[in-house]
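User: Fold this, then the next.

Assistant: Folding the first:
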Amino acid sequence: MTTLTGRERATYVQKMFTRIAGRYDVMNRLMTFGQDLSWRREVIRRAAITPGSRVLDLGTGTGDLALEIRAHQPESWPVAGDFTVEMMRVGQKRPNGNTLDWCATDALNLPYADETFDAVVSGFLMRNVSDLPRALSEQRRILKPGGRIVILDTTRPPENLLAPFIRIHLNYVIPTLGKLITGEAEAYTYLPDSTKGFLRAEALAVRMGEANFGEVGFKRVMFGTIAIHWGKK
């Protein structure tokens, strides 16, 4: 699964999220013990959204971040973009889902003009893209000067006393829950595999700098298994 590259990887990920769309939100709450809600609020705070801000929630899924942006700043303009249509269909049925602008969006070829958005945010997207430098470049392209990028994603945890328990949670607890809740154990085996195959938080910060983002920083949460990165154009 995680050894796939290019178009094959994109197709696999798209089909996987199509299959689990209906139970995606429930699993997120269970896997993170509900902490993903506070992480998304931190993303929005880092994005410095103000009235009139145009914000792209890239890889929106069912619209968690975009809906939180709408609640946090009702006078902003959040756009919910994803390349899995079924996920967005589920999101449109959520409370206030019909208040968002939904758009079929490929992270490697964003359908927006240069300097369109004041902020681009994403939740659990970047480890899934097949070309990380291009995805970062595209996000920088559509940001206005001074615009902010904020990334929420998994990261390989540090080796410490908690590491064995974290591995048990990732490799056994999450796939078992996934099978029970969604009937899709394979999709939730992909999660730990993609986490182990993704960059450490420190390395992603370096990549953001290489993509010409300034003021790059990050913080780890949930015993070091999740990271929030931010930067500025």
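Now the next one, as you asked:
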Amino acid sequence: MSDREVTHPLRVFDIIAVLFVAFLLISNIAATKLIALDFGFLPTALIFDGGAILFPLTYVLGDVLSEVYGFRRARRVIVLGFAVSVLASAIFWLVQVAPPGPGYENQAAFEAVLGFVPRIVAASLAGYLVGQLLNSWVLVWIKRTWGEERLWVRLIGSTLVGEAVDTVVFCTIAFYGVITGADFLNYVLVGYVYKVSVEVLMLPVTYPVIGWVKRLEGRPTRHADLRRVSA
């Protein structure tokens, strides 16, 4: 089946779009902190940023948008998310440079955390905009080429491509120079493997969610394909 856009009134598109934008904003702020987990049995600690906790779910939501609503609407939500991220970054900068009021003693802490957000947003704009659009395009391309079946191939294939571009570009712009050498390589590899693993592990959830949204929006579903992954 071709990638036809949903044209009738949409029932849950706005909810998915709001969640996508919210998860992106939260991740951009959480990403200002680097985290190192030392499990003892590994030769080195695993390094990642705080945005990695929630950020992979934006890819899951991106898959739902692309699979159900098509590339055009998915692209609009992706661009809207980054427009809001740029606005948030500008507001944080304006608040940072504004003179602190009487009794406010946390200016240095504010600058240390939220003052780093513009660099994170720049990294997101360069990495995630390209990565998410590529993720959406690959998913739709596979669907057009092989049809509605094998949804898991579309979800995993698009993630492998999109997350690779996203992770390398984001990590380089956001933290290269802050961490370098083996630590930076650790950060990139851990981030990529973690993000891809989360989406793969989320497949048993993503499948029924896509099926549920398709039914709400009046789109056909491949029940046999859904059962194959859910089993």
